[in-house]
Amino acid sequence: MPTLTVTIEQIIDLIQQLPLEQKRIVLLELAKEAETQRLEEKSREILKSQYPEGNLVDEFIQERREETGNDC
Length: 72
Prior knowledge:
Blueprint: H1 8-17, H2 20-50, H3 54-68
Helix pairs in contact: 2-3
C-alpha cells in the first residue's frame, strides 16, 4: 500500500473541510486517544513511585502494549 506524507497544516486544512458531524467524530477520537495516553502516563508515574525498579515498570507496560496491540 502506498504511503501518503502530509504536513500538520495539510491535515488541519483537510479536517476544516469536513462537515460538522465528521469534524466532531475526528475530535472525539483524538480526545479519546489523548485521554488514554494521559492515563497511561499517570499509571506509569504511580507504578514507578511504588516500585524503585523503574525499568521493570517500562518492560511491563511494553509487554501489555504488545498483548493488547495498543501502540499508544
